[in-house]
Queue: 4 jobs
Job 1
Amino acid sequence: MERAAPSRWAPLWLLLLGGLSLLAAQGADVFMETCCADGHRMATQRRDCSLPYASESKECRMVQEQCCHSQLEELHCATGINLANEQDSCTVPHGDNASLEAMFVKRCCYCCLLGRAAQAQGQSCEYSLMVGYQCGLVFRACCVKGQETADFAPGDVGDLQEAAKVSEIEEGQEDPYLNDRCRGGGPCKQQCRDTGEEVVCSCFVGYQLLPDGVSCEDINECIMGGQNCRLGESCINTVGSFRCQRDSSCGTGYELTEDNDCKDIDECESGIHNCLPDFICQNTLGSFRCRPKLQCKSGFIQDALGNCIDINECLSISAPCPVGQTCINTEGSYTCQKNVPSCGRGYHLNEEGTRCVDVDECSPPAEPCGPGHLCVNSPGSFRCECKAGYYFDGISRTCVDINECRRYPGRLCGHKCENTPGSYYCSCTMGFRLSSDGRSCEDVNECSSSPCSQECANVYGSYQCYCRRGYQLSDVDGVTCEDIDECALPTGGHICSYRCLNIPGSFQCSCPSTGYRLAPNGRNCQDIDECVTGIHNCSINETCFNIQGGFRCLAFECPENYRRSADT
């Protein structure tokens, strides 16, 4: 019979425990149990193991990180077992299903559901070697527990070692798990551990043990202070956990996301706008606007299909021409002719009505040839030719735009070439502008617009900000210079002998108000000899004695037949 190879998680814990014993045997100054407790506390309170660890010991930080990740996986696994037992599904509420936390929760939830299904179908609770070591432990615990709440949350080192021993039992040997008083959950409502001497009950994360020692009740993190909701959010207690809910609504045009953020509703994409068929819906922040699909030129009107058609002014306008003249409709306009014998097609009477003159079908606003064509007037008619930038397609019998950028790659523009109907235009990448020839690109001197708060150096296609002495470039925007607080630097305490005062771009040293003066180097404080400078207040019968930062007046009397030497 083959045995399942334990996952790498169990040996990592065994190595960690062995490392703790070795460090303890060597008399290390770092208390490893305290370090591991700090890691557990970080996982339980902050639910984050990426925060910086405060210990100065490299070994302690290693233990803190490993214990934090172990505790965090145990918390997530316990949540997954709760989901399997309480809602019989593995949908993670109020969370990102792609996060690492959701993966741990779903893994233990699925393994527990498999164990419950095996028990319901009357199958063996001995887990398959293919599901993995940790999943097998959850599978077996939930299978034995049956339809009740699973009593095992993997992650505890002792539980893993006991389970590893069970997996190594050979065929024909008695399984000690059958004699375990915690089999099937024992007397405990959630987690049970048989120490050999007694049965100890414990609860999942988010629960606390009741005085009866076997039952568990939900912890209200919102009241007990275990929540981390942000400002503007309210804490709502849930079974075994809590969630944060936004206090105020998002307002019209916005919707609340699962992360408690407000997201704009795209009324155009969702189809909840009220734009008419002749209008196009354009989404805006919090709302939308309707704009016409097509703007027709003067003399044209939009039909029901959105196309621009000519207005027959001769029919729509009452008496468009004076008496004795006939209205003749044209593309986009109309003309008036005297009531004389009509001219042939392509001609009309002159203003005097004396002769027929050619109708210039190509004169604006008429466009009889359509886009891409050049209208050429001829007597009594007109012809259409292709404009510059177009070529005539003999198959479609139309003028097709010439893509100059594709036909002459790299030869027209210095940087980027953009094709347009009948032509093209050149553009430049960021940091450059188009030269006067409209084709080549020249560097833009960004420093001329003073983008930096202090000094600016133009480079090819960009620019670089730098700061004067005593300042440093901001890591936030890269253009602002921030004052360096020399007094707050690690060496700040050694800059001045007495007191350091930060000023913009530099610092100043100061001395006590009395008894000292600043040395010529501007950093050290020198004692003032009040006795030499004569600024003391000793009487004539006293002697001035200089001390550091001050002076003393000493009074003494000479014996009989003596006098003070200063008086001689």
Job 2
Amino acid sequence: MASSVASINSSLVNLKTTNSTLLIKLKQLGFNTELTLGSEKEYTVKTLIQAIDTLAIQFLTITANSRQFIQRTSYAERRTIETCLRELHTCLLQTQQDLQTFHPLTFHCHAAHALIYTDEKGEYHCLKLLDAAQYIDTIKPYYRMLETITAHERIHALSAVLENMLNRDTEIIDSEIDLTDEQTNALQLSQYLIRQAL
């Protein structure tokens, strides 16, 4: 396995592991997980954490066949993915560390802004998780590209199977005697339309 793919897979496993308890911890400490964040307020804290989890699972699926993953991506693309995943993991780790020192009695969660709190001196702080949206947005186009390629391969495989079934059905129809001309014509028309769709 190429080192870039091994590093990506390692980062994905780390993301899944670190991300698994984050939502519960944020809720326990009083953060409102329904507040929005992101460039266009496209995430809530809850959906951001879910997006990280989903991204990790989807990329683990895509990278499962490392040879195909290497063929479908350039080295520069793999390095970009690797860097973004590492930065995303750093966001999660830093957030976990910050939450370890968070005391609900002396720190207060901001009521209107996601992942922001004030300390005992009244100074505002934000959790590093706030930066995660930008890394997810950077990785999304790569995921979509790979997902599209995978979908095209599946469509071609299904088309080949369907074509084979249609050819076999045509042979069976020709040997069937008990179909009326109208039924035979209708069946041939439906096969023709299916072939055109392929």
Job 3
Amino acid sequence: MKTLVTSVGILACLLLIKSAESVIPPYLQRQLQREQAVVHRFRPTAARCCRVGQRTARKMMSCSLYSSQRILNSVHTAGGEVQSGNLDTFISKITQCAVSFSMSFEKCCVNKENFLKEIRMCRRRYTERSFRAKCIKIAKAKYRQ
């Protein structure tokens, strides 16, 4: 009798475990629905092209729209290593912004480039920390950064 009860108990436990495994939790169902890669297209707006321009200046690439495809842009990057996949998508964003919102892109890029030059000059010019901090504070106020 005891063996029958224990075997029935074990079978019931196994059935519960199997039925619990067959129910897919909701957080796993969301992953199953998204099997295809989500493609995000870059849609240029004035604000997005301004951000692309600022990023161009931070990467020390040319702000001129006519030289976005030049070899100099792929050589003179701030990171040292050129990641070709990311650089290709970034250059495609630059060309899309050059077509749609060229003034916004160029204005933001030149503004950020001048700001970064001024910050670098502050760091080179002053060795004392307090003077350097004042210079950087003035530059941030000037360029509203």
Job 4
Amino acid sequence: MPRLSMLKTLTIQAFAACVLLWATQVQALTLPVTELVEERAAAEMGRAIPANGRIDVRLAKGVIHEGEFIQEFWMDQQTGQFIANVVTEHGETQRVWGVAVMTVEVPVPSRRIMPDEIVGPEDLTLVELPLQRVGSFALFDANELVGKQVRRMLVAGRPVPRHSVIPPIIITRGEKVKILLNYGGLQLSARGRAMSDAHAGQELRVVNLSSNKAISAIAAADGIVKVEK
């Protein structure tokens, strides 16, 4: 009998240990509701999420903050408002609501930058903004701004529209330029006048001052254009 009693005791202890382990594992399955909502919101938005975007979830006051999974989910992508039915670790369904806002990190001017200025790294700072405030034409990469010439005034703290900056102008309209012509291995030169502004590599029309004829050329450097034959 003592031996049988010992076996029963060991069996009960082993069963209790399994129950405790199972309970621990079940508890470990609970996650912050913000993470559960972020996952569902990301699935709702799909391809609309930029590479550097993240979803900032804010829950309403008084709702639960942990759960196992979301049973049902509704979201207005325009406002970010959502409602979700969350299943808790006890199997109960609790309704939560709040706002899930897509935010992106974008470079913005740290000061007001005037037209014709060249943007430097020190002129920019990175900030996180709601995607709705950024706009589809804004530049998301600082490398697309540094070294560019400002076309329209840039306001401090605001995303930069793509059309507000251009490559630096190296030829200005009306400027006298040197025309270089490569022809059959020979390099010839002539004086000309630019008919428009141009950045490096851009095609423009110039007037050959010797023949008074307009020709197409490529802006090569400050005051120099090239014609390839």
